[in-house]
Design goal:
mainly alpha; binds phenylalanine; 444 residues
């Protein structure tokens, strides 16, 4: 007799795990920055429209596929679609593998910075040397590889413990903790003298900045931030029991992810502006600008530690979901035990991350003008995830629409009044919007 499939222990636990996957580095360092760049509150409105219309729909599509098939991403498409459809699952497997390899490197930086907060980081940052500290850290191969491996060991250790005993247990504690830390940091940041200028930069609606490019950025950001298009939510959905009403679950996860993204801006901009520092972007903002900001605050090391802990939790719970995509494949298709899958796949991904870790410090040659890490990010984020999103929506909209309706309503036992709206979003709106960002995002 085949072993019974593992299941989430509770609806709350599942929501925390799915929100843990969605809330990641993308929310905390990327969302605030692009919001500031593309018109503040005006951009937030477009972003909200995108995640409510496309985000919830594609997430619901992924949950329905996974829960119906009770299988990994490849197996789900094999079961429900057949033909070439399993290729969509393979694309997800590839993304899980490759994204995690570099994501764990960056998660390693956040882990290192938690400890550095209590070391000499504050003094160096106060002396204007935060950039040197970061440069020295990422170009030290021993440190960056060691932290990357440590993160992979933690991630594999949690995934090895299983769905309810590992992932759910840990997300149920970490996600509420993340909210608490976020709120403490917001209170600190907005009460700094001079915080108002940052709030104005972040939120003042400037419709002149709402260009076509801004709308595309909203769609791209929404997809990455909600972990869509690569089988993650299919995989998590495959461990769901039938009793959950999926539309509200999908809406809750989207709401939590979007709230964290918007709230993160209330930590970053008021603090940066209060001390008259130029807000930079990406890794620079996080690892160079913010330590300089913390260095000027009373008890700065505590807030610095809190901030990097926040980032680490966000990154860890996303990394877990990336490994789970790959591990569920090995369990369902290769019939491996969870232990073997977590160890073998975790090790393989850790090894693939080494070139990413080395590339940031310039230790290995670039690929066509990009660091290994940036190249891996580009291929997954700009090419495979949007393609995956298009195929998943088209699959649910055109190929498996009746099956999807039966799955969402549990064969007509529950009502789903928005079915027709959802169907046409999957059929037309989502694929067309994603196709446009895909084509415009192809600039290497
Ligand atoms: N959503 C995560 C973030 O915002 C990244 C991620 C993408 C996680 C795809 C899992 C799958 O950082």
């Amino acid at each position: 007799m085949p072993k019974e499939r593992e299941q989430w222990g509770s609806r709350f636990g599942f929501i925390m795990a799915a929100a843990g996957s969605a809330v990641g580095l993308g929310n905390i360092w990327r969302f605030p920055y692009i919001t500031g760049k593309f018109g503040g509150a005006a951009f937030v409105m477009v972003y909200l429209a995108v995640v409510v219309v496309i985000g919830i729909s594609v997430m619901l599509a992924e949950f329905a596929i996974g829960r119906n098939a009770q299988s990994d991403a490849v197996g789900s498409f094999r079961k429900l679609g057949g033909g070439l459809w399993p290729l969509v699952g393979w694309m997800g497997f590839f993304c899980g593998f490759v994204i995690l390899s570099y994501y764990a490197v960056i998660a390693g930086w956040t882990l290192a910075y938690m400890f550095k907060s209590f070391g000499s980081l504050m003094q160096s940052a106060a002396a204007g040397k935060a950039g040197d500290v970061f440069g020295a850290f990422v170009s030290d191969p021993v440190q960056s590889i060691a932290y990357h491996i440590a993160v992979m060991a933690i991630v594999a250790g949690i995934v090895y413990k299983g769905i309810s005993g590992g992932i759910e247990k840990c997300c149920k504690v970490l996600m509420p903790a993340l909210f608490v830390i976020l709120l403490v940091l917001i209170v600190r940041s907005v009460t700094l003298p001079g915080a108002g200028a940052g709030l104005e930069f972040y939120l003042k609606p400037d419709f002149s900045k709402l260009t076509g490019e801004a709308v595309l950025a909203a769609v791209g950001q929404g997809f990455f931030s909600l972990s869509l298009g690569m089988g993650c939510m299919i995989t998590y959905g495959s461990y769901l029991g039938k009793s959950d009403y999926l539309p509200t679950t999908a809406a809750t996860v989207v709401f939590l992810d979007t709230s964290v993204a918007i709230l993160a801006g209330f930590v970053i901009f008021p603090a940066v502006f209060a001390f008259g520092i130029e807000p930079g972007a990406g890794p620079g903002l996080t690892f160079v600008t913010l330590p300089a900001v913390f260095a000027k605050m009373p008890f700065g090391m505590v807030f610095s530690f809190g901030f990097f802990l926040l980032l680490f939790i966000a990154a860890l719970t996303s990394a877990i979901s990336l490994l789970e995509v790959v591990v569920t494949y090995a369990i369902d298709q290769l019939k491996w035990s969870r232990t073997k899958a977590a160890i073998v796949m975790g090790t393989a991904i850790a090894l693939l991350g080494i070139p990413s870790a080395l590339s940031v410090g310039g230790h290995i040659p670039q690929i066509a003008g990009k660091d290994f890490l940036d190249a891996a990010d580009f291929i997954t984020n700009n090419i495979i995830m949007p393609l995956g999103g298009i195929f998943i929506s088209v699959f649910v909209g055109w190929v498996w629409a009746d099956g999807a309706k039966a799955e969402v309503t549990d064969n007509g036992k529950m009502v789903f009044p928005m079915y027709t709206v959802w169907l046409w979003i999957c059929r037309v709106v989502a694929p067309v919007c994603i196709a446009i960002i895909f084509i415009t995002g192809l600039k290497w």
